[in-house]
């Protein structure tokens, strides 16, 4: 131990430890992402030509808003198939009604009625299929009814938003030809955003599941959700966190941020400055002030971040730990113990 009289001469300062406490976590890069269930890709229902784009990137849209106009030869074929199916359904319906009347009068056998019923059923099925094909192509119910009733055909149609959101990206330009199922644009509901945090693989379980993740330089926080089970080629795992209320208005999808991930809690660990810890023969020690000077106490480092470490050891509330001139204390300690 070092006598109390040498304290000032050696320039030693101390820090009081009052109770076990956690240290703040390490900082890692993170990317703002949209949850998969809140993003939709608007694809071309049929092959055609992009006639007009009616929205711009980052524009907010409501359910039913027109997004772009598409013209397509395939659309004409689908409309023709609907008209033919509608005409066939009307014809078989009338034939069935006539056959039933003739059967009631005893003029034809019942077999003719059965045949007419089957023909009418087949026509009705083809009509439903033709309506469904146009509905999947993006045509509205009013236009489908008009065409089925013998109305004029259309050469194009507007694709509309199925859900409210914000246009994230436009994948096409006016005049561009697209094939069926080609992506046209992406829309996302930004009411909830996630963070994908890249953690070193050896820290995959060293974070606190109950504490909030803090976004550096802002007052925003995020709640941890899960960590990936697969280690990437860069030897990292992805910690996914859900941004708490208000984050979606201040951050944008694709943005990179720095976040502070808290360590897993340890009720018996003490937070001390990293300068207070010395090593000897592979063990860690801190110097605690005693009535006669200082005594070396063995500790176990359980976590570290920046200028702080979290240690376990024979410490108690009120202990004063040396935080400066620790090398001088170590030299004095080793001199008295013979370097053991």
N-to-C span: 14 Å
How much of the sequence is in beta strands? 35-45%
Mean pLDDT: 87
Structural class of the helices, strands and pairings?
A: alpha+beta
Main beta sheet, described? 6 strands, antiparallel, barrel
At the fold tier of CATH, the topology name of the largest domain is conserved putative lor/sdh protein from methanococcus maripaludis s2 fold
Order of strands across the biggest sheet?
2-11-14-13-12-15
Rg over alpha carbons: 37 Å
Quick rundown:
The protein has 340 residues and is of the alpha+beta class. Helices cover 24% and strands 35% of the residues. The chain has a six-stranded antiparallel beta barrel. A five-stranded antiparallel beta sheet has the order 16-20-19-18-17.
Can you give a write-up of this model?
With 340 residues, this protein is of the alpha+beta class. The chain has four domains: 4-22 and 266-337, conserved putative lor/sdh protein from methanococcus maripaludis s2 fold; 26-35 and 192-261, Elongation Factor Tu (Ef-tu), domain 3 (Beta Barrel), CATH 2.40.30.170; 45-71 and 155-188, OB fold (Dihydrolipoamide Acetyltransferase, E2P), CATH 2.40.50; 73-148. The protein has helices spanning 73-104, 110-137, 141-148, 326-337, and strands at 14-17, 26-33, 39-43, 48-53, 60-61, 66-71, 156-160, 165-170, 177-178, 183-188, 194-200, 213-215, 221-227, 236-243, 256-261, 270-273, 278-280, 283-290, 293-305, 308-313, 319-322. The strands form five sheets. Strands 2-11-14-13-12-15 form a six-stranded antiparallel beta barrel. Helix 1 packs antiparallel against helix 2 (110-137). It is rod-shaped. The relative contact order is 0.21.
């Amino acid at each position: 131990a070092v006598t109390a009289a040498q304290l000032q001469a050696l320039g030693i300062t101390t820090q009081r430890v009052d109770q076990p406490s956690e240290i703040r976590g390490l900082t890692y890069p993170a990317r703002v992402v949209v949850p998969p269930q809140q993003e939709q890709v608007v694809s071309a229902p049929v092959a055609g030509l992009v006639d007009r784009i009616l929205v711009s990137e980052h524009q907010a849209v409501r359910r039913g808003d027109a997004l772009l106009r598409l013209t397509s030869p395939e659309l004409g074929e689908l409309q023709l198939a609907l008209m033919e199916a509608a005409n066939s359904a009307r014809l078989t319906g009338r034939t069935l009604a006539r056959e039933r009347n003739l059967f009631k009068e005893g003029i034809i056998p019942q077999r003719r009625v059965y045949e007419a019923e089957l023909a009418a059923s087949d026509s009705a099925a083809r009509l439903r299929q033709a309506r469904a094909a146009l509905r999947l192509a993006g045509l509205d119910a009013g236009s489908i009814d008009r065409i089925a009733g013998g109305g004029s055909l259309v050469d194009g149609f507007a694709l509309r938003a199925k859900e409210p959101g914000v246009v994230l990206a436009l994948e096409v330009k006016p005049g561009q030809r697209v094939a069926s199922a080609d992506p046209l644009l992406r829309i996302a509901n930004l009411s909830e955003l996630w963070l994908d945090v890249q953690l070193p693989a050896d820290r995959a379980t060293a974070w606190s599941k109950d504490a909030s993740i803090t976004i550096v330089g802002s007052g925003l926080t995020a709640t941890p959700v899960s960590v990936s089970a697969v280690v990437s080629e860069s030897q990292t795992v992805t910690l996914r966190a859900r941004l708490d209320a208000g984050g979606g208005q201040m951050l944008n999808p694709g943005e990179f941020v720095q976040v502070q991930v808290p360590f897993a809690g340890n009720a018996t660990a003490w937070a001390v400055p990293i300068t207070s810890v010395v090593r000897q023969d592979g063990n860690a020690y801190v110097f605690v002030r005693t009535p006669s000077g200082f005594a070396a106490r063995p500790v176990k480092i359980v976590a570290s971040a920046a200028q702080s470490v979290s240690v376990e050891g024979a410490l108690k509330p009120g202990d004063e730990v040396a935080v400066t001139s620790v090398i001088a204390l170590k030299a004095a300690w080793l001199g008295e113990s013979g370097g053991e």
